[in-house]
Amino acid sequence: MITGFNTDVKYKGVVYHVQTEDKGTANPLIETLIYKGGEILGSRRLPYADLVTRGDEAAITKLMEDQHKGMIMEVKRGRFDLANERTVMEDLSLDDLVLAYLAARAASAR
């Protein structure tokens, strides 16, 4: 039985650590954590009690692998890049967009 996976992923020069582990049949849960410098940035938990009753160890391992790979892809796509946070302007009407632009311009002129 595989108890977990650990992978370091580099995105924009920053190393993120992806850790996936099986909490065991007493607590049938697959948990993946994303770390950056020891801080947990994200997590995903997947219960699998139905697979324990069937004794399907291969299916549990496949779920772990898929979840781990999925979280690695999310890191590579920049989901956990906190410097990437920005205001989404696409949801604003044209009037609101113009007002936001003028307000930002007035604030920078002060």
List strands and helices in order, with pairings:
Elements: E1 4-11, E2 14-22, E3 29-36, E4 39-47, H1 49-54, H2 57-76, H3 94-109
Antiparallel strand pairs: 1-2, 2-3, 3-4
Features:
110 residues, alpha+beta, four-stranded antiparallel sheet, 3 helices, 4 strands, elongated
Characterize the structure shown:
There is one protein chain. 38% of the residues lie in helices and 31% in strands. By secondary structure, the chain is of the alpha+beta class. It has one domain (4-85). A hairpin with a 6-residue loop joins strand 2 and strand 3. The longest helix has 20 residues, at 57-76.
Structural class: alpha+beta
Distance between the ends: 64 Å
- Number of helical segments with 4 or more residues: 3
Query: Which stretches are poorly predicted, pLDDT < 50 over at least 5 residues?
Result: 86-92
H and E order: EEEEHHH
How many domains would you count in the coordinates?
A: 1
Name the average pLDDT: 82
Report Rg.
Answer: 21 Å
Number of strands: 4
The biggest sheet, with number of strands, parallel, antiparallel or mixed sense and barrel status, is: 4 strands, antiparallel
Q: Looking at the structure, what is the overall shape?
A: elongated
Largest sheet strand order: 1-2-3-4
Percent helix range: 25-40%
Question: Beta-strand level of the residues, as a percent range?
Answer: 25-35%
